[in-house]
Design a protein that fits this description.
The complex is a heterodimer of chains A (510) and B (76).
Chain A: H1 6-21, H2 27-40, H3 47-70, H4 74-113, H5 128-143, H6 153-161, H7 163-166, H8 174-182, H9 189-222, H10 231-259, H11 277-283, H12 286-301, H13 304-317, H14 319-342, H15 346-364, H16 366-375, H17 383-405, H18 409-421, H19 439-464, H20 469-474, H21 478-495, H22 499-502
Chain B: H1 2-11, H2 31-45, H3 56-59, H4 62-75
Helix pairs in contact in B: 1-2
Chain lengths: 510, 76
Protein backbone atom coordinates (compact mmCIF):
# COMPACT_ATOMS: atom_id res chain seq x y z
CA UNK A 1 0.00 0.00 0.00
CA UNK A 2 1.73 3.15 -1.20
CA UNK A 3 1.90 6.07 1.21
CA UNK A 4 0.78 8.32 -1.65
CA UNK A 5 -2.55 6.71 -2.41
CA UNK A 6 -6.22 7.19 -1.58
CA UNK A 7 -6.20 3.65 -0.12
CA UNK A 8 -3.59 4.70 2.44
CA UNK A 9 -5.46 7.91 3.33
CA UNK A 10 -8.62 5.87 4.03
CA UNK A 11 -6.55 3.32 5.97
CA UNK A 12 -5.00 5.99 8.22
CA UNK A 13 -8.36 7.76 8.68
CA UNK A 14 -9.98 4.48 9.78
CA UNK A 15 -7.07 3.73 12.12
CA UNK A 16 -7.25 7.19 13.74
CA UNK A 17 -11.05 7.17 14.03
CA UNK A 18 -11.13 3.76 15.70
CA UNK A 19 -8.16 4.62 17.93
CA UNK A 20 -10.10 7.37 19.70
CA UNK A 21 -13.48 5.60 19.70
CA UNK A 22 -12.53 2.27 21.31
CA UNK A 23 -11.75 1.99 25.06
CA UNK A 24 -8.32 3.48 25.68
CA UNK A 25 -6.85 0.32 27.17
CA UNK A 26 -7.24 -1.38 23.76
CA UNK A 27 -5.57 1.40 21.76
CA UNK A 28 -2.25 -0.43 21.47
CA UNK A 29 -4.07 -3.60 20.31
CA UNK A 30 -5.81 -1.50 17.66
CA UNK A 31 -2.45 -0.15 16.48
CA UNK A 32 -1.02 -3.68 16.36
CA UNK A 33 -3.99 -4.87 14.30
CA UNK A 34 -3.60 -2.04 11.79
CA UNK A 35 0.17 -2.51 11.68
CA UNK A 36 -0.23 -6.15 10.72
CA UNK A 37 -2.97 -5.37 8.18
CA UNK A 38 -0.64 -2.78 6.64
CA UNK A 39 2.26 -5.21 6.54
CA UNK A 40 0.12 -8.05 5.14
CA UNK A 41 -1.03 -5.73 2.34
CA UNK A 42 2.51 -5.88 0.93
CA UNK A 43 2.22 -9.68 0.73
CA UNK A 44 0.95 -12.15 3.35
CA UNK A 45 4.04 -14.35 2.94
CA UNK A 46 6.22 -11.48 4.18
CA UNK A 47 4.52 -11.75 7.58
CA UNK A 48 6.76 -14.76 8.19
CA UNK A 49 9.87 -12.55 8.20
CA UNK A 50 8.28 -9.98 10.48
CA UNK A 51 7.11 -12.69 12.89
CA UNK A 52 10.50 -14.40 12.79
CA UNK A 53 12.27 -11.18 13.72
CA UNK A 54 9.70 -10.37 16.41
CA UNK A 55 9.76 -13.79 18.07
CA UNK A 56 13.53 -14.30 18.00
CA UNK A 57 14.33 -10.86 19.45
CA UNK A 58 11.51 -11.13 21.99
CA UNK A 59 12.82 -14.57 23.00
CA UNK A 60 16.38 -13.26 23.27
CA UNK A 61 15.19 -10.45 25.54
CA UNK A 62 13.31 -12.83 27.83
CA UNK A 63 16.22 -15.29 27.98
CA UNK A 64 18.67 -12.50 28.82
CA UNK A 65 16.37 -11.41 31.64
CA UNK A 66 16.05 -14.99 32.91
CA UNK A 67 19.84 -15.42 32.95
CA UNK A 68 20.36 -12.08 34.69
CA UNK A 69 17.82 -12.81 37.44
CA UNK A 70 18.46 -16.52 38.04
CA UNK A 71 22.20 -16.98 37.46
CA UNK A 72 24.13 -16.04 40.62
CA UNK A 73 27.56 -16.70 39.13
CA UNK A 74 28.47 -13.43 37.33
CA UNK A 75 30.96 -15.09 34.98
CA UNK A 76 28.47 -17.73 33.91
CA UNK A 77 25.73 -15.13 33.48
CA UNK A 78 28.01 -13.08 31.23
CA UNK A 79 28.91 -16.18 29.19
CA UNK A 80 25.27 -17.26 28.69
CA UNK A 81 24.25 -13.68 27.95
CA UNK A 82 26.85 -13.45 25.22
CA UNK A 83 25.68 -16.71 23.62
CA UNK A 84 22.05 -15.50 23.61
CA UNK A 85 23.01 -12.17 22.02
CA UNK A 86 25.19 -13.81 19.37
CA UNK A 87 22.39 -16.25 18.47
CA UNK A 88 19.77 -13.46 18.36
CA UNK A 89 21.93 -11.26 16.14
CA UNK A 90 23.01 -14.16 13.92
CA UNK A 91 19.42 -15.25 13.25
CA UNK A 92 18.23 -11.74 12.41
CA UNK A 93 21.19 -10.44 10.45
CA UNK A 94 21.46 -13.86 8.80
CA UNK A 95 17.90 -13.53 7.52
CA UNK A 96 18.58 -9.98 6.33
CA UNK A 97 21.81 -11.05 4.62
CA UNK A 98 20.17 -13.99 2.83
CA UNK A 99 17.24 -11.91 1.59
CA UNK A 100 19.25 -8.86 0.60
CA UNK A 101 22.70 -10.04 -0.45
CA UNK A 102 22.42 -13.62 -1.83
CA UNK A 103 22.21 -12.54 -5.46
CA UNK A 104 24.99 -9.96 -5.00
CA UNK A 105 27.31 -12.70 -3.70
CA UNK A 106 26.33 -15.07 -6.54
CA UNK A 107 26.92 -12.36 -9.15
CA UNK A 108 30.41 -11.72 -7.77
CA UNK A 109 31.24 -15.44 -7.59
CA UNK A 110 30.14 -15.82 -11.21
CA UNK A 111 32.21 -12.81 -12.25
CA UNK A 112 35.38 -13.92 -10.41
CA UNK A 113 35.30 -17.67 -11.06
CA UNK A 114 33.46 -17.69 -14.38
CA UNK A 115 30.72 -19.92 -12.96
CA UNK A 116 27.08 -19.72 -13.98
CA UNK A 117 25.19 -20.14 -10.75
CA UNK A 118 21.54 -19.15 -11.23
CA UNK A 119 20.24 -16.17 -9.31
CA UNK A 120 17.36 -16.58 -6.85
CA UNK A 121 14.13 -14.69 -7.37
CA UNK A 122 14.00 -13.18 -3.88
CA UNK A 123 11.63 -10.34 -3.10
CA UNK A 124 12.82 -8.10 -0.31
CA UNK A 125 10.25 -8.03 2.52
CA UNK A 126 8.92 -4.54 3.22
CA UNK A 127 11.07 -2.56 5.65
CA UNK A 128 13.25 -5.55 6.60
CA UNK A 129 16.40 -3.41 6.99
CA UNK A 130 14.58 -1.07 9.35
CA UNK A 131 12.82 -3.54 11.64
CA UNK A 132 15.87 -5.82 11.79
CA UNK A 133 17.96 -2.92 13.07
CA UNK A 134 15.26 -1.75 15.47
CA UNK A 135 14.69 -5.18 17.02
CA UNK A 136 18.38 -6.15 17.25
CA UNK A 137 19.07 -2.79 18.92
CA UNK A 138 16.52 -3.84 21.56
CA UNK A 139 18.38 -7.13 22.18
CA UNK A 140 21.66 -5.27 22.73
CA UNK A 141 19.98 -2.70 24.99
CA UNK A 142 18.58 -5.50 27.17
CA UNK A 143 21.99 -7.20 27.20
CA UNK A 144 23.71 -4.01 28.34
CA UNK A 145 20.97 -3.31 30.89
CA UNK A 146 19.87 -0.12 29.14
CA UNK A 147 16.23 -1.24 29.13
CA UNK A 148 14.04 -3.87 30.76
CA UNK A 149 12.72 -6.57 28.42
CA UNK A 150 9.05 -6.50 27.43
CA UNK A 151 7.01 -9.34 28.98
CA UNK A 152 4.02 -9.25 26.63
CA UNK A 153 4.87 -10.65 23.21
CA UNK A 154 1.98 -8.81 21.54
CA UNK A 155 3.10 -5.46 22.92
CA UNK A 156 6.61 -6.22 21.73
CA UNK A 157 5.18 -7.13 18.30
CA UNK A 158 3.77 -3.59 18.10
CA UNK A 159 7.19 -2.09 18.85
CA UNK A 160 8.66 -3.99 15.86
CA UNK A 161 5.77 -3.45 13.46
CA UNK A 162 4.31 0.03 14.20
CA UNK A 163 2.97 0.77 10.73
CA UNK A 164 3.92 4.41 10.08
CA UNK A 165 7.62 3.74 10.66
CA UNK A 166 8.11 0.16 9.41
CA UNK A 167 8.47 1.25 5.77
CA UNK A 168 11.43 3.63 6.04
CA UNK A 169 12.12 4.32 9.71
CA UNK A 170 13.11 6.21 11.76
CA UNK A 171 14.84 3.35 13.57
CA UNK A 172 13.29 3.57 17.04
CA UNK A 173 14.74 2.81 20.45
CA UNK A 174 12.71 0.71 22.85
CA UNK A 175 13.11 2.94 25.91
CA UNK A 176 11.83 6.01 24.02
CA UNK A 177 9.17 4.46 21.79
CA UNK A 178 7.59 1.50 23.61
CA UNK A 179 6.09 3.51 26.48
CA UNK A 180 4.36 5.84 24.01
CA UNK A 181 2.97 2.95 21.97
CA UNK A 182 1.39 1.29 25.03
CA UNK A 183 0.16 4.50 26.72
CA UNK A 184 -3.46 5.63 26.59
CA UNK A 185 -3.99 8.72 24.44
CA UNK A 186 -6.92 11.11 24.51
CA UNK A 187 -8.14 12.99 21.44
CA UNK A 188 -6.41 16.35 21.14
CA UNK A 189 -7.52 18.57 18.27
CA UNK A 190 -4.36 20.68 18.40
CA UNK A 191 -2.14 17.60 18.12
CA UNK A 192 -4.20 16.25 15.22
CA UNK A 193 -3.91 19.60 13.44
CA UNK A 194 -0.13 19.65 13.97
CA UNK A 195 0.11 16.08 12.71
CA UNK A 196 -1.88 16.84 9.56
CA UNK A 197 0.22 19.97 9.01
CA UNK A 198 3.41 17.90 9.13
CA UNK A 199 1.94 15.30 6.76
CA UNK A 200 1.07 18.06 4.26
CA UNK A 201 4.57 19.55 4.50
CA UNK A 202 6.08 16.10 4.01
CA UNK A 203 4.00 15.44 0.91
CA UNK A 204 4.91 18.90 -0.40
CA UNK A 205 8.62 18.05 -0.07
CA UNK A 206 8.07 14.68 -1.69
CA UNK A 207 5.71 15.55 -4.55
CA UNK A 208 6.69 19.13 -5.42
CA UNK A 209 10.44 19.06 -4.69
CA UNK A 210 11.63 15.45 -4.89
CA UNK A 211 9.40 14.23 -7.69
CA UNK A 212 9.93 17.30 -9.91
CA UNK A 213 13.69 17.08 -9.39
CA UNK A 214 13.47 13.34 -9.99
CA UNK A 215 12.24 13.86 -13.58
CA UNK A 216 15.50 15.63 -14.49
CA UNK A 217 17.68 13.32 -12.40
CA UNK A 218 16.26 10.18 -14.07
CA UNK A 219 16.76 11.63 -17.54
CA UNK A 220 20.35 12.78 -16.90
CA UNK A 221 21.51 9.62 -15.10
CA UNK A 222 19.88 7.28 -17.62
CA UNK A 223 21.47 8.95 -20.66
CA UNK A 224 24.91 10.11 -19.58
CA UNK A 225 26.13 10.43 -23.18
CA UNK A 226 23.46 12.80 -24.44
CA UNK A 227 23.25 14.75 -21.21
CA UNK A 228 26.97 14.85 -20.43
CA UNK A 229 26.82 18.64 -20.08
CA UNK A 230 24.11 18.34 -17.44
CA UNK A 231 25.97 16.05 -15.00
CA UNK A 232 26.34 18.84 -12.47
CA UNK A 233 22.58 19.49 -12.61
CA UNK A 234 21.98 15.76 -12.34
CA UNK A 235 23.77 15.51 -9.02
CA UNK A 236 22.40 18.79 -7.66
CA UNK A 237 18.92 17.62 -8.64
CA UNK A 238 19.58 14.34 -6.86
CA UNK A 239 20.60 16.16 -3.69
CA UNK A 240 17.18 17.88 -3.79
CA UNK A 241 15.34 14.71 -4.75
CA UNK A 242 16.88 12.51 -2.06
CA UNK A 243 16.47 15.08 0.69
CA UNK A 244 12.90 15.95 -0.32
CA UNK A 245 11.99 12.31 -0.69
CA UNK A 246 13.51 10.94 2.52
CA UNK A 247 12.93 13.90 4.84
CA UNK A 248 9.46 14.41 3.33
CA UNK A 249 8.73 10.74 3.99
CA UNK A 250 9.92 11.19 7.57
CA UNK A 251 7.60 14.18 8.04
CA UNK A 252 4.67 12.08 6.80
CA UNK A 253 5.63 9.22 9.14
CA UNK A 254 6.11 11.59 12.08
CA UNK A 255 2.83 13.37 11.27
CA UNK A 256 0.86 10.10 11.16
CA UNK A 257 2.44 9.03 14.47
CA UNK A 258 1.44 12.39 15.98
CA UNK A 259 -2.18 11.61 15.05
CA UNK A 260 -1.92 8.71 17.54
CA UNK A 261 -0.16 10.86 20.15
CA UNK A 262 3.22 9.27 19.42
CA UNK A 263 6.44 11.19 18.77
CA UNK A 264 9.19 9.38 16.86
CA UNK A 265 12.89 10.22 16.94
CA UNK A 266 14.02 12.95 14.55
CA UNK A 267 15.78 11.67 11.45
CA UNK A 268 16.83 14.96 9.82
CA UNK A 269 18.20 18.26 11.01
CA UNK A 270 18.88 20.40 7.95
CA UNK A 271 21.79 18.26 6.67
CA UNK A 272 22.88 20.65 3.91
CA UNK A 273 23.80 23.16 6.60
CA UNK A 274 26.43 20.74 7.93
CA UNK A 275 29.97 22.08 8.29
CA UNK A 276 31.79 18.75 8.06
CA UNK A 277 31.02 15.22 6.91
CA UNK A 278 30.82 14.16 10.57
CA UNK A 279 28.33 16.95 11.16
CA UNK A 280 26.43 15.84 8.04
CA UNK A 281 25.96 12.36 9.51
CA UNK A 282 24.69 13.96 12.73
CA UNK A 283 21.98 15.62 10.64
CA UNK A 284 21.20 13.07 7.88
CA UNK A 285 19.41 9.79 8.66
CA UNK A 286 20.18 10.48 12.32
CA UNK A 287 18.67 7.27 13.69
CA UNK A 288 20.83 5.11 11.40
CA UNK A 289 23.90 7.11 12.46
CA UNK A 290 23.18 6.77 16.17
CA UNK A 291 22.34 3.08 15.72
CA UNK A 292 25.71 2.53 14.03
CA UNK A 293 27.47 4.55 16.72
CA UNK A 294 25.93 2.72 19.67
CA UNK A 295 25.82 -0.83 18.30
CA UNK A 296 28.81 -1.02 15.93
CA UNK A 297 31.25 1.86 16.46
CA UNK A 298 31.53 1.71 20.27
CA UNK A 299 31.48 -2.10 20.61
CA UNK A 300 34.09 -2.52 17.83
CA UNK A 301 36.28 0.27 19.24
CA UNK A 302 36.13 -1.19 22.75
CA UNK A 303 36.58 -4.83 21.72
CA UNK A 304 39.56 -6.87 22.94
CA UNK A 305 41.24 -7.11 19.54
CA UNK A 306 40.89 -3.36 19.00
CA UNK A 307 42.43 -2.77 22.45
CA UNK A 308 45.41 -4.89 21.44
CA UNK A 309 45.70 -2.97 18.17
CA UNK A 310 45.51 0.30 20.14
CA UNK A 311 48.40 -0.75 22.40
CA UNK A 312 50.45 -1.78 19.36
CA UNK A 313 49.67 1.48 17.53
CA UNK A 314 50.60 3.61 20.56
CA UNK A 315 53.99 1.89 20.79
CA UNK A 316 54.58 2.13 17.04
CA UNK A 317 53.22 5.60 16.17
CA UNK A 318 53.16 7.49 19.46
CA UNK A 319 50.33 8.36 21.83
CA UNK A 320 48.23 10.69 19.71
CA UNK A 321 48.13 8.77 16.41
CA UNK A 322 48.16 5.43 18.22
CA UNK A 323 45.05 6.50 20.12
CA UNK A 324 43.22 7.75 17.02
CA UNK A 325 44.18 5.01 14.53
CA UNK A 326 41.98 2.25 16.05
CA UNK A 327 39.06 4.70 16.21
CA UNK A 328 39.56 5.48 12.51
CA UNK A 329 39.62 1.76 11.71
CA UNK A 330 36.37 1.24 13.65
CA UNK A 331 34.91 4.22 11.80
CA UNK A 332 35.82 2.65 8.44
CA UNK A 333 34.11 -0.58 9.50
CA UNK A 334 31.00 1.41 10.44
CA UNK A 335 30.84 3.13 7.06
CA UNK A 336 31.48 -0.13 5.26
CA UNK A 337 28.38 -1.47 7.06
CA UNK A 338 26.48 1.74 6.22
CA UNK A 339 27.37 1.23 2.55
CA UNK A 340 26.33 -2.42 2.58
CA UNK A 341 23.11 -1.50 4.41
CA UNK A 342 22.23 0.91 1.59
CA UNK A 343 22.21 -1.86 -0.99
CA UNK A 344 23.79 -4.92 -2.52
CA UNK A 345 26.15 -3.24 -5.00
CA UNK A 346 29.79 -2.18 -5.13
CA UNK A 347 28.78 1.46 -5.67
CA UNK A 348 27.19 1.50 -2.19
CA UNK A 349 30.34 0.03 -0.66
CA UNK A 350 32.37 2.78 -2.35
CA UNK A 351 29.80 5.33 -1.12
CA UNK A 352 30.19 4.11 2.46
CA UNK A 353 33.98 3.92 2.38
CA UNK A 354 34.22 7.37 0.78
CA UNK A 355 32.39 8.85 3.78
CA UNK A 356 34.37 6.72 6.22
CA UNK A 357 37.75 7.71 4.77
CA UNK A 358 36.94 11.44 4.92
CA UNK A 359 35.87 11.18 8.57
CA UNK A 360 38.86 9.00 9.47
CA UNK A 361 41.35 11.39 7.83
CA UNK A 362 39.64 14.35 9.54
CA UNK A 363 39.99 12.54 12.87
CA UNK A 364 43.67 11.80 12.29
CA UNK A 365 44.41 15.37 11.25
CA UNK A 366 42.24 17.07 13.90
CA UNK A 367 45.28 18.23 15.88
CA UNK A 368 46.98 19.49 12.72
CA UNK A 369 43.88 21.44 11.70
CA UNK A 370 43.85 23.15 15.11
CA UNK A 371 47.49 24.23 14.79
CA UNK A 372 47.05 25.36 11.15
CA UNK A 373 44.05 27.47 12.12
CA UNK A 374 46.04 29.00 14.99
CA UNK A 375 49.02 29.75 12.73
CA UNK A 376 46.81 31.33 10.04
CA UNK A 377 44.80 33.29 12.66
CA UNK A 378 41.52 31.79 11.43
CA UNK A 379 38.57 32.49 13.66
CA UNK A 380 36.31 29.40 13.53
CA UNK A 381 33.21 31.45 14.25
CA UNK A 382 33.84 33.99 11.45
CA UNK A 383 30.94 33.95 8.96
CA UNK A 384 33.18 33.49 5.92
CA UNK A 385 34.90 30.48 7.47
CA UNK A 386 31.57 28.88 8.38
CA UNK A 387 30.32 29.51 4.83
CA UNK A 388 33.50 27.94 3.45
CA UNK A 389 32.96 24.86 5.68
CA UNK A 390 29.33 24.63 4.57
CA UNK A 391 30.14 24.82 0.84
CA UNK A 392 33.07 22.40 1.19
CA UNK A 393 30.81 19.88 2.94
CA UNK A 394 28.06 20.32 0.34
CA UNK A 395 30.60 19.62 -2.41
CA UNK A 396 31.90 16.49 -0.65
CA UNK A 397 28.35 15.25 -0.07
CA UNK A 398 27.46 15.78 -3.73
CA UNK A 399 30.47 13.74 -4.80
CA UNK A 400 29.11 10.90 -2.65
CA UNK A 401 25.68 11.26 -4.32
CA UNK A 402 27.27 10.36 -7.67
CA UNK A 403 28.10 6.91 -6.24
CA UNK A 404 24.70 6.62 -4.59
CA UNK A 405 22.65 7.45 -7.68
CA UNK A 406 24.70 6.18 -10.64
CA UNK A 407 24.18 2.64 -11.89
CA UNK A 408 27.79 1.69 -11.23
CA UNK A 409 31.12 3.06 -9.98
CA UNK A 410 32.47 3.62 -13.54
CA UNK A 411 29.33 5.58 -14.45
CA UNK A 412 29.70 7.69 -11.30
CA UNK A 413 33.32 8.48 -12.17
CA UNK A 414 32.40 9.30 -15.76
CA UNK A 415 29.69 11.70 -14.58
CA UNK A 416 32.09 13.34 -12.14
CA UNK A 417 34.51 13.94 -15.00
CA UNK A 418 31.69 15.33 -17.16
CA UNK A 419 30.60 17.61 -14.31
CA UNK A 420 33.90 19.49 -14.46
CA UNK A 421 34.63 19.27 -18.18
CA UNK A 422 31.27 19.77 -19.94
CA UNK A 423 28.62 22.34 -19.14
CA UNK A 424 25.55 22.91 -21.34
CA UNK A 425 22.78 24.21 -19.06
CA UNK A 426 20.45 25.10 -21.95
CA UNK A 427 19.94 21.36 -22.55
CA UNK A 428 17.88 21.24 -19.35
CA UNK A 429 14.95 22.62 -21.34
CA UNK A 430 15.15 19.70 -23.75
CA UNK A 431 14.22 17.21 -21.01
CA UNK A 432 10.50 16.43 -21.34
CA UNK A 433 8.73 16.49 -17.96
CA UNK A 434 5.87 14.34 -19.23
CA UNK A 435 5.15 12.26 -22.30
CA UNK A 436 5.06 14.70 -25.26
CA UNK A 437 5.82 17.52 -22.82
CA UNK A 438 6.78 20.87 -24.33
CA UNK A 439 9.76 23.11 -23.55
CA UNK A 440 7.37 25.56 -21.88
CA UNK A 441 6.22 22.79 -19.52
CA UNK A 442 9.82 21.96 -18.65
CA UNK A 443 10.55 25.62 -17.95
CA UNK A 444 7.45 25.82 -15.74
CA UNK A 445 8.54 22.78 -13.71
CA UNK A 446 12.02 24.28 -13.30
CA UNK A 447 10.48 27.51 -11.98
CA UNK A 448 8.26 25.52 -9.57
CA UNK A 449 11.29 23.54 -8.41
CA UNK A 450 13.36 26.69 -7.86
CA UNK A 451 10.52 28.37 -5.93
CA UNK A 452 10.01 25.25 -3.81
CA UNK A 453 13.73 25.06 -3.01
CA UNK A 454 13.75 28.74 -2.06
CA UNK A 455 10.79 28.15 0.27
CA UNK A 456 12.51 25.15 1.89
CA UNK A 457 15.75 27.12 2.19
CA UNK A 458 13.99 30.03 3.97
CA UNK A 459 12.25 27.64 6.40
CA UNK A 460 15.58 25.89 7.05
CA UNK A 461 17.44 29.18 7.69
CA UNK A 462 14.78 30.17 10.22
CA UNK A 463 15.05 26.77 11.91
CA UNK A 464 18.86 27.06 12.01
CA UNK A 465 18.35 30.38 13.81
CA UNK A 466 16.18 28.65 16.38
CA UNK A 467 12.84 29.87 15.03
CA UNK A 468 10.23 27.12 14.81
CA UNK A 469 8.06 28.04 11.84
CA UNK A 470 5.32 25.63 12.93
CA UNK A 471 5.08 27.28 16.34
CA UNK A 472 4.87 30.71 14.73
CA UNK A 473 2.09 29.42 12.48
CA UNK A 474 0.28 27.81 15.41
CA UNK A 475 -0.09 31.24 17.05
CA UNK A 476 -1.80 32.72 13.96
CA UNK A 477 -5.62 32.82 13.56
CA UNK A 478 -7.36 29.67 12.32
CA UNK A 479 -8.33 31.34 9.02
CA UNK A 480 -4.70 32.05 8.18
CA UNK A 481 -3.64 28.54 9.17
CA UNK A 482 -6.38 27.06 7.01
CA UNK A 483 -5.24 29.18 4.07
CA UNK A 484 -1.68 27.83 4.45
CA UNK A 485 -2.95 24.24 4.70
CA UNK A 486 -5.18 24.62 1.65
CA UNK A 487 -2.35 26.21 -0.34
CA UNK A 488 -0.10 23.26 0.53
CA UNK A 489 -2.89 20.77 -0.19
CA UNK A 490 -3.68 22.16 -3.64
CA UNK A 491 0.00 22.56 -4.47
CA UNK A 492 0.36 18.77 -4.41
CA UNK A 493 -1.75 17.91 -7.48
CA UNK A 494 -1.19 21.26 -9.22
CA UNK A 495 2.59 21.63 -8.82
CA UNK A 496 3.76 18.07 -8.14
CA UNK A 497 4.27 15.10 -10.43
CA UNK A 498 1.46 12.51 -10.54
CA UNK A 499 2.33 9.64 -8.11
CA UNK A 500 1.53 7.09 -10.84
CA UNK A 501 4.58 8.34 -12.80
CA UNK A 502 7.09 8.75 -9.99
CA UNK A 503 6.67 5.66 -7.82
CA UNK A 504 7.00 5.53 -4.06
CA UNK A 505 9.61 6.69 -1.59
CA UNK A 506 13.25 5.84 -2.37
CA UNK A 507 14.08 4.51 1.11
CA UNK A 508 11.01 2.25 1.11
CA UNK A 509 13.01 -0.16 -1.04
CA UNK A 510 15.60 -0.80 1.66
CA UNK B 1 40.73 14.33 39.13
CA UNK B 2 43.63 16.56 38.04
CA UNK B 3 45.00 13.80 35.85
CA UNK B 4 41.56 13.44 34.26
CA UNK B 5 41.40 17.17 33.53
CA UNK B 6 44.81 16.96 31.88
CA UNK B 7 43.61 14.10 29.67
CA UNK B 8 40.51 16.04 28.65
CA UNK B 9 42.51 19.18 27.93
CA UNK B 10 44.97 17.19 25.82
CA UNK B 11 42.26 15.51 23.71
CA UNK B 12 39.85 18.40 23.29
CA UNK B 13 41.30 21.76 24.37
CA UNK B 14 39.37 24.99 24.81
CA UNK B 15 36.50 23.68 26.93
CA UNK B 16 35.58 24.63 30.49
CA UNK B 17 35.88 21.16 32.01
CA UNK B 18 35.69 22.43 35.59
CA UNK B 19 32.16 23.80 35.17
CA UNK B 20 30.60 22.46 31.97
CA UNK B 21 27.94 19.81 32.56
CA UNK B 22 26.76 19.45 28.96
CA UNK B 23 29.86 18.16 27.19
CA UNK B 24 27.83 15.63 25.20
CA UNK B 25 24.52 17.50 24.96
CA UNK B 26 26.27 20.58 23.51
CA UNK B 27 28.41 18.52 21.12
CA UNK B 28 31.72 19.55 22.74
CA UNK B 29 32.77 15.91 22.86
CA UNK B 30 31.99 13.83 19.76
CA UNK B 31 32.29 10.07 19.42
CA UNK B 32 35.98 10.31 18.33
CA UNK B 33 36.78 12.38 21.44
CA UNK B 34 34.81 10.01 23.70
CA UNK B 35 36.77 6.99 22.49
CA UNK B 36 40.06 8.87 22.78
CA UNK B 37 39.18 9.69 26.40
CA UNK B 38 38.23 6.07 27.07
CA UNK B 39 41.54 4.90 25.63
CA UNK B 40 43.46 7.29 27.90
CA UNK B 41 41.36 6.40 30.96
CA UNK B 42 42.09 2.72 30.42
CA UNK B 43 45.82 3.44 30.25
CA UNK B 44 45.94 5.92 33.13
CA UNK B 45 43.61 4.26 35.65
CA UNK B 46 43.61 0.62 34.55
CA UNK B 47 39.84 0.51 34.16
CA UNK B 48 37.93 -1.30 31.44
CA UNK B 49 35.07 0.67 29.85
CA UNK B 50 32.33 -1.33 28.11
CA UNK B 51 29.85 -0.04 25.47
CA UNK B 52 27.14 -0.05 28.17
CA UNK B 53 29.04 2.74 29.98
CA UNK B 54 29.05 5.03 26.94
CA UNK B 55 25.97 7.06 27.80
CA UNK B 56 25.69 10.87 28.04
CA UNK B 57 25.23 10.70 31.83
CA UNK B 58 28.80 9.39 32.19
CA UNK B 59 30.44 11.86 29.80
CA UNK B 60 28.51 15.11 30.22
CA UNK B 61 30.97 16.53 32.78
CA UNK B 62 34.41 15.91 34.21
CA UNK B 63 32.75 15.09 37.54
CA UNK B 64 30.55 12.42 35.95
CA UNK B 65 33.57 10.97 34.17
CA UNK B 66 35.51 10.86 37.42
CA UNK B 67 32.58 9.17 39.18
CA UNK B 68 32.54 6.51 36.43
CA UNK B 69 36.29 5.93 36.77
CA UNK B 70 35.98 5.54 40.57
CA UNK B 71 33.07 3.12 40.20
CA UNK B 72 34.89 1.02 37.58
CA UNK B 73 38.00 0.93 39.77
CA UNK B 74 35.92 -0.39 42.68
CA UNK B 75 34.26 -3.02 40.50
CA UNK B 76 37.56 -4.21 39.03
Amino acid sequence: MSLISMKFVVFVAAAVFGYYVIPKRFQWVWLLLFSYIYYASSGVKFLFFLLFSTLTTYGAGRLLYAVRTSCTDKKKARFYGRIIVVCGLFLNFGMLAVMKYTNFVILNINAVFGTQIDLFSLLLPLGISFYTFQSTGYVLDVYWGKCEPERNVLRFALFVSFFPQILQGPIGRFHRLAGQLYAEHTFDFQRIERGLELILWGFFKKMVLADNAGVFVSAIFSDTQNYAGLSIFGVLGYSIQLYGDFSGGMDVVQGISNLFGITLDDNFKRPYFARSITDFWHRWHITLGTWMKDYVFYPVSLSGWMNRFSRFAKKRFGKSIGRTLPICLANLIVFLVVGIWHGAAWKFIVYGLYNGIIIAVSGLLAGQYRSWKKALHINSSAWWYQLFQLLRTFLLVNISWFFDRADSVPQALEMMRNAVTTFTPSELLSIPVQQNGSTAMTAAVLVILAAGCLMLFCVSVLQERGICVREVLAKRPLVLRLAVYLALFFALPCLGQPPSLTGGFIYAQF
Amino acid sequence: MEQLLEILEDIQPDADYENCETLIDDGILDSFAILSIVSELEDAFGVSVTPAEIVPENFNSAKALWAMVCRLKEEA
